[in-house]
Amino acid sequence: MAKIVVIYYSATGTTYKMALAVKEGAEKTGAEVRLRKVRELAPDEAVASNEGWSNHRLETQNVLEATLSDLEWADAIILGAPTRYGVPAAQLKQFIDTTGPLWAQGKLVNKIGSSFTSAATTHGGHESTILALNNTFYHWGCLIVGPGYADPIQFQSGNPYGTSFTSQNGTVPPDEVTLSAARFQGQRVADVAAMFGHQKQHS
Ligand SMILES: Cc1cc2nc3c(=O)[nH]c(=O)nc-3n(C[C@H](O)[C@H](O)[C@H](O)COP(=O)(O)O)c2cc1C
Predict the structure, then answer these.
(1) How far is CA 94 from the centre of its chain?
(2) Of the candidates 14, 28, 54, 192, which lies 20 to 30 Å from 181 by C-alpha distance?
(3) 33 CB within 6 A, ligand 1
(4) What CATH code is carried by the domain that includes residue 116?
């Protein structure tokens, strides 16, 4: 069975809820799934000044932080981050920027990659954030698997690049269509990783 790591950043919980759904979808295939957050970089005063942010930090205090060994372990890496000025939040980017040792040794080559995001507004940068995350997968030598329109839920959620949700600045939690699309993305990535792993074993 495929090994999947879902690595996310979330300040106020929207992207976290999507990450849980991605994990659930991947697990449905029988895959082994690790859910990992990345380290908070904002100063404690900034987190404390926003109730949603500090509550979410407390809620996820027991979620393990991503490490390079999670990346090495996984057959597929699914990245999720809120959109910030049209690109992924710096916290996730900072983690990505620690992967040099794995990249230099080719340890990320031929893994499956996929991305998701949440943003405040409809045109606030859903695709640009997902595509920015996917740029990293090219450098790592990964195979990018987006959800496409490979399931009927995609015709409702409408984002073939990766699951995305308009949170209206974190005031609205992901709806059922978004969570179903996130589950589908997790499932599809896990299915493709299992098929690809099988091919690799027999080639
Ligand atoms: C510094 C900052 C920059 C942001 N930039 C954007 C943006 O460019 N476009 C957008 O739609 N939302 C933007 N947002 C809103 C977040 O992307 C949105 O509220 C997201 O759903 C938060 O996810 P979270 O609850 O997982 O933290 C920004 C938020 C912050 C704090």
Answers:
(1) 15
(2) 54
(3) no
(4) 3.40.50.360
What average pLDDT does range 62-74 have in this prediction? 98
Q: Of 2, 6, 20, 21, give the one whose Cα is nearest residue 184.
A: 21
Instruction: Read off the pTM.
Output: 0.98
Q: Is residue 199's pLDDT more than 90?
A: no
The minimum-distance atom of ligand 1 relative to the CA of 13 is 25
**What range defines the domain where residue 73 resides?**
3-201
Q: By three-state DSSP, how is residue 81 classified?
A: strand
Read off the tokens for 45. 């005063």
Count of structural domains within the chain = 1
Q: What is the pLDDT of residues 91-109, one digit of tens each?
A: 999 999 999 999 999 999 9
Residue with CA nearest ligand 1 atom 31 = 84
Pocket of ligand 1 contains residue 83 by CB under 6 Å: yes
